[in-house]
Design brief:
Helices cover 63% and strands 9% of the residues. It has a single domain, classed as Up-down Bundle (Glutathione S-transferase Yfyf (Class Pi), Chain A, domain 2). It is globular. The strands form 2 sheets. Strands 2-1-3-4 form a 4-stranded mixed sheet. Strands 5-6 form a two-stranded antiparallel sheet. A hairpin with a 5-residue loop joins strand 5 and strand 6. It is an alpha+beta fold. InterPro entries: Glutathione-S-Trfase_C-like, Glutathione-S-Trfase_C_sf, Glutathione_S-Trfase, Glutathione_S-Trfase_N, PGES2, PGES2_C, Thioredoxin-like_sf. It is found in: Cytoplasm; Endomembrane system. Keywords: Cytoplasm, Fatty acid biosynthesis, Fatty acid metabolism, Isomerase, Lipid biosynthesis, Lipid metabolism, Membrane, Prostaglandin biosynthesis, Prostaglandin metabolism, Transmembrane, Transmembrane helix. It is an enzyme of class 5 (isomerase).
């Protein structure tokens, strides 16, 4: 309480002057009228008449200040209580969920989901999927990762697509709606991509299903909500496509990348050896094709550097994160995508040749400090 009072003293002092001004000015005007109407005006009685209103004015000023400070401190503490209640509510909601994440550890889309879950302190189990056999997800007709299985009471829900998983779970934490209802807002639909292949897309996947008050509480305004959606989509549609061409840029980098993938992934001994050498060779040539498909420069590092600096410029110098004082869903998405390059030459180059490192380290720290 003492800390809150000290922090709010300048505001309380301003309120004191506003509340004290009018009584003090009124009493001072009366004292001048009494003084000019009195005979002799310099004796003890005149001094008493003059001093009395001043004492009353000072008392009114002090009383106004105390009331202003009391109500300001009370408002501040009530705001803290409401924030604590919302945190407790979010913790209570998260405790009702049992989450299992099916993933490839080195997949940028899976890394996005882990960044979200870790930042929001949502406990989850990880099942590392064998990328060759994929037996771990044989229960699912949706054959990509990440997949999250969410147990809420007696209800078991399957969430597909990284952005849908994040939007659905964030909606759940903010609104408290049943997860079974929330996932109906993100219906899958079949589409044919540029290569003539049928793919599954999800409607509304960057949109949180909140009412007006919830959205106002979370974002403060439409601009912040639109900005978050725009950059989440940018991470999926552009940034993620820069990863493979950069980590497989040269034969040496491709081999180092697959060495990392095999160590972190769920491979058998023979599968691992084949993946390391055959996969590295294959991905080196595939990365060249990806470079042409996405119209990247001959030196793909330049596209990576440009993307990183574009993101830093969008965050700006006046806020630590795009979300303001804490990371929002766009911050977590961009961080999750870039994190899969840690330990590789592309990541070291990115940190050296762009301005992204301070922001990256802030997000890393925010996730590490999330309450467990």
């Amino acid at each position: 309480m003492a800390h809150a009072v000290r922090a709010l003293w300048p505001l309380g002092r301003a309120l004191a002057w506003r509340l004290g001004d009018r009584p003090a000015l009124g009493l001072h005007a009366q004292s001048r009228a009494g003084f000019t109407g009195a005979a002799g005006g310099s004796g003890p009685a005149a001094t008493a008449r003059k001093g009395g209103p001043r004492l009353l004015g000072a008392a009114a000023l002090a009383l106004g200040g105390a009331l202003g400070l009391y109500h300001t401190a009370r408002w501040h503490l009530r705001t803290q209580d409401l924030r604590a209640e919302r945190s407790a509510t979010q913790l209570s909601l998260s405790s009702h969920l049992q989450l299992t994440l099916y993933q490839y550890k080195t997949c940028p889309f899976c890394s996005k989901v882990r960044a979200f879950l870790d930042f929001h302190a949502l406990p989850y189990q990880v099942v590392e999927v064998n990328p060759v056999r994929r037996a771990e997800i044989k229960f699912s007709s949706y054959r990509k990762v990440p997949i999250v299985m969410a147990q809420e009471g007696e209800s078991l829900q399957q969430l597909n697509d990284s952005s849908v998983i994040i939007s659905a779970l964030k909606t759940y934490l903010v609104s408290g709606q049943p997860l079974a209802d929330i996932i109906t807002y993100y219906p899958p639909m079949k589409a044919v991509n540029d290569q003539g292949k049928e793919v599954t897309e999800f409607c509304n996947k960057y949109w949180l299903m909140l009412d007006e008050k919830e959205a106002q509480r979370m974002y403060g305004g439409k601009e912040a909500r639109t900005e978050e959606m725009k950059w989440r989509q940018w991470a999926d549609d552009w940034l993620v496509h820069l990863i493979s061409p950069n980590v497989y840029r040269t034969p040496a980098e491709a081999l180092a990348s697959f060495d990392y993938i095999v160590k972190e992934g769920n491979f058998g001994t023979v599968e691992g050896a084949m993946a390391k050498y055959m996969g590295a060779a294959a991905m080196y040539f595939i990365s060249k094709r990806l470079k042409r498909r996405h119209h990247l420069r001959d030196d793909v590092r330049e596209d990576l550097y440009e993307a990183a600096n574009k993101w830093v410029a969008a965050v700006g110098k006046d806020r630590p994160f795009m979300g303001g004082q804490k990371p929002n869903l766009a911050d977590l998405a961009v961080y999750g995508v870039l994190r899969v390059m840690e330990g590789l030459e592309a990541f070291d180059d990115l940190m050296r040749h762009t301005h992204i490192q301070p922001w990256y380290l802030r997000v890393e720290k925010a996730i590490a400090e999330a309450p467990q």
